[in-house]
Specification:
- The complex is a heterodimer.
- By secondary structure, chain A is of the alpha/beta class.
- The longest helix of chain A has 16 residues.
- By secondary structure, chain B is an all-alpha fold.
- In chain B, strands 1-2 form a two-stranded antiparallel ribbon.
- The chains are: A alpha/beta, B mainly alpha.
- The interface between A and B is medium-sized, with 37 and 33 residues.
Chain lengths: ~325, ~280
C-alpha cells in the first residue's frame, strides 16, 4: 500500500515517459489527429481507447517518430521526436500496425534479424535474447517454422517478441490482441502485468475495453482525432457517474428523508441513487436507518469502462 | 548481474555497422528468388557456349568471336546480359531493399530499432551492390569455365579482336576488368532503382521503372535527331565492355561510360538519402 503511494508520488516528480503537446496531423484533407495533449506517466500502463479511425495509430506513429506531426511537439523518454528519436528508441519496444516480418524466413531467423539491429544487444547476447523472447510469448515450439505458415495469432506473438527482445523502459503495443485466441489474450495481459511490475511504462491501444479495464492504470479516450477523456482509470470511472446506490424497498420514505437535509436523490430501479455533493455516505446511511428505511445494500456507483466509453464516443454530433 | 552489465555497457545509439551489413547480407542471399535468379544466370553462359558449338559457323559480332576462342565467352556473356538480365537482378534487389521492406511492414521495424536513417541507406546500398557483384561474378566464372570446357580452343589463350594472342593470366585480367566495369554500370542502375524504391511501397513499380527506363533509353539512343542526348544516356556505354578484347586495350569508352555510371550513382544515392531522411514508415 505504502509502496504504491510512493510510486504515485514519484510518478509526479519524474518526467513522463512520453508526451505530446498540441499535436495535429493532417493527411491531405483528412484531419487524423486534431490537437492532442497527452502525457504517459512513467511507470503507468496507459490504455488508449477509441473507435476505428479515431487517430490512435497516427498518434502512436507520431510518438515513435515514424511520421512527423503537421504541428505540435512530441517527446519520448525526454527526447524530442522525431529529431532526436534515435536517442530514445533503443529503450522503446513497439508493435505498431501489426507484425511486420519476412515470409521466407522462420520466426527465429526473423527475430535474429531484428536483434541484429538492436543497439542495446551485444553480438554474443543475440542468440539467448531471441530464445528468451520466443519463450516469453509462447512461440518456442513454432520458432523454426517459416513465418509464411504462421496463423494470425502466431504472427502477433512474434511481433510481441520483437518488442520484448531487450529490457525496455517503454513498450508501445498497438492492438496487441488482434487475432489472438483467449489464451493469447491472457498471455498479453500477463506480459503487460510483468512489464508493469518490472517498472516499465506500457502504452496499449485497443478497442477491447475489457482488456484495458483489466490491465491499465490510466486511460485515454480518443474520438475523431480528439482526446475526449484521460486520466487514472479509477478516477475516470468514478467521475463518469458517481453517486451512492442504496437498495431499499422504502423508496418514498427514503427520498423524503433525504430531501429534508437538502441532498439530491432520485428513484432508480429497486432503490435510489444519492448524487454526490451532499453528506458523505456513512451519514446518508445513518440518516436513512434513523428514518426507518430498510437499507439492503449501499455502494458507490462505478461505471464499467464500457458504459463510459459508449457515453464518450457515441454522442451523435 | 543485469544491472552491472547495463551500467558497464557504453551507450550506443545504433548497432555496429558490421553487424548491420552482415544481417543485410544474410537477408539478401537467403531470399529464395535471389538464389533462383542467380542459378538461372549461371545457365546463360553455358547455353551460349552450347549454342556456339552446335551452330558451328563463324557468324559475326561478339558471339561469332567465341567460336574456337572460349575465353571470349565470359566477356560476351556479361556484355549481352548487361542489356537486360543483369539490370533486372539489380532492380529486383533494389525493389526488395526499400519498397519491399515497406510493403512487409519491416521498414518500420528497422527505423524503430533504431537503425539510423543514414545507416539504413548505406545498408541497403550495400545489399544491392552485393547482388550486382554476385550476379556478375557468377556470369564471369561460369563463362570462363564453360568457355574452356565447352567451347575450348586457343589452348587456354585468348585471341583478341585485334588478332593478337594473350596468355591465360592476361586473359583473366581482361575478364576481371570487364567484370569490374559491368559492376560499375550495374551500380548506376542500382542507385537509380534504390531512389525509386525509396518513394514507393510497391516493389513492382521499381522493377517496371527500371526495365521501362532501359527500354526508353535504348529507343532514345536509336533516334538520330536526338544525338545530343547520347552522352547523358546510361545505355550509350553498355557496349564498351567488348573493348577489353582489343589489343592494346582502348580505355576511352570504358572510362567515359564508367564516369557516366558514377554520375548516376551520385544522383541516385543523393535522392535515396534525402528521401529516406524524411520518409514516413
Amino acid at each position: 500500500m505504502t509502496a504504491s503511494t510512493e510510486e504515485r508520488t514519484a510518478a509526479r516528480v519524474v518526467p513522463p515517459a512520453a508526451a505530446v503537446r498540441g499535436v495535429r496531423k493532417v493527411f491531405g484533407k483528412t484531419v487524423a489527429v486534431d490537437g492532442i495533449d497527452l502525457e504517459v506517466p512513467t511507470g503507468s500502463v496507459l490504455g488508449m481507447l477509441g473507435p476505428n479511425g479515431s487517430g490512435k495509430t497516427t498518434l502512436i506513429r507520431m510518438l515513435l517518430g515514424l511520421t512527423r506531426p503537421t504541428s505540435g511537439t512530441a517527446e519520448l523518454l525526454g527526447h524530442a521526436v522525431p529529431d532526436a528519436a534515435e536517442q530514445a528508441l533503443p529503450h522503446v519496444g513497439a508493435l505498431v500496425e501489426g507484425p511486420g516480418f519476412h515470409p521466407f524466413l522462420s520466426g527465429r531467423e526473423n527475430l535474429r534479424r531484428v536483434a541484429a539491429t538492436e543497439p542495446l544487444l551485444a553480438g554474443h547476447e543475440i542468440r539467448d535474447a531471441v530464445g528468451t523472447a520466443l519463450e516469453r510469448v509462447g512461440l518456442a515450439d513454432a520458432a523454426d517454422r517459416r513465418f509464411r505458415g504462421y496463423s494470425l495469432g502466431m504472427k502477433q506473438r512474434l511481433g510481441l517478441a520483437a518488442a520484448l527482445l531487450v529490457p525496455r523502459r517503454l513498450v508501445v503495443l498497438d492492438e496487441p490482441t488482434n487475432g489472438l485466441d483467449p489464451a493469447g489474450t491472457r498471455d498479453v495481459r500477463r506480459i503487460v502485468a510483468e512489464l508493469h511490475a518490472g517498472g516499465a511504462t506500457v502504452l496499449v491501444s485497443s478497442h477491447l475495453l475489457a482488456e484495458v479495464e483489466a490491465t491499465c492504470t490510466h486511460v485515454a479516450v480518443l474520438q475523431a482525432g480528439s482526446l475526449v477523456a484521460s486520466g487514472e482509470l479509477g478516477a475516470l470511472l468514478e467521475a463518469g457517474t458517481g453517486g451512492l446506490v442504496v437498495a431499499t424497498p422504502d423508496v418514498d420514505t427514503a427520498l423524503e428523508a433525504l430531501r429534508g437535509i437538502g441532498a439530491t436523490a432520485f428513484r432508480d430501479g429497486d432503490g435510489i441513487v444519492v448524487a454526490d455533493g451532499g453528506p458523505p455516505a456513512p451519514e446518508v446511511v445513518a440518516l436513512l436507518v434513523r428514518a426507518g428505511v430498510a437499507v439492503h445494500e449501499a455502494r458507490r456507483r462505478r461505471a464499467r469502462l464500457e458504459e463510459l466509453f459508449a457515453r464518450l464516443t457515441e454522442e451523435s454530433p | 548481474m543485469t544491472l552491472v552489465e547495463s551500467a558497464t555497457t557504453p551507450h550506443r545509439g545504433s548497432a555496429p555497422m558490421g553487424r548491420l551489413l552482415g544481417a543485410e547480407l544474410r537477408w539478401v542471399l537467403r531470399r529464395p528468388r535471389t538464389l533462383v535468379m542467380l542459378g538461372l544466370f549461371a545457365l546463360v553462359p553455358i547455353l551460349i557456349a552450347i549454342g556456339v558449338v552446335v551452330a558451328d559457323r563463324g557468324g559475326g559480332g561478339l558471339i561469332g568471336a567465341i567460336a574456337g576462342n572460349g575465353l571470349v565467352l565470359p566477356v560476351a556473356a556479361m556484355t549481352l546480359m548487361l542489356a537486360l538480365l543483369l539490370p533486372l537482378a539489380v532492380g529486383m534487389a533494389a525493389a526488395d531493399a526499400i519498397a519491399g521492406e515497406a510493403a512487409h511492414g519491416t521498414l518500420r521495424g528497422l527505423l524503430l530499432a533504431p537503425v539510423g536513417r543514414g545507416r539504413l541507406v548505406l545498408m541497403k546500398a550495400f545489399g544491392v551492390l552485393v547482388v550486382a557483384v554476385t550476379a556478375t561474378l557468377i556470369v564471369a566464372v561460369v563463362g570462363v569455365i564453360a568457355g574452356l570446357v565447352v567451347v575450348g580452343g586457343a589452348d587456354g589463350t585468348l585471341v583478341t579482336l585485334s588478332g593478337t594472342t594473350l596468355g591465360f593470366g592476361e586473359a583473366m585480367g581482361r575478364v576481371g576488368i570487364a567484370a569490374l566495369w559491368t559492376v560499375g554500370q550495374l551500380a548506376a542502375v542500382g542507385a537509380i532503382a534504390l531512389a525509386i524504391s525509396a518513394f514507393t511501397e510497391h516493389p513492382l513499380v521499381v522493377l517496371a521503372s527500371v526495365l521501362g527506363g532501359l527500354i526508353v533509353f535504348g529507343v532514345l539512343g536509336a533516334i538520330p535527331a536526338l544525338d545530343w542526348l547520347q552522352p547523358y544516356l546510361l545505355t550509350t556505354g553498355f557496349s564498351a565492355g567488348a573493348d577489353v578484347l582489343r589489343d592494346p586495350m582502348t580505355w576511352g569508352e570504358l572510362g567515359s561510360s564508367t564516369l557516366r555510371a558514377l554520375c548516376y550513382v551520385a544522383i541516385g544515392g543523393g535522392i535515396t538519402a534525402s528521401r529516406m531522411l524524411t520518409r514516413d514508415a
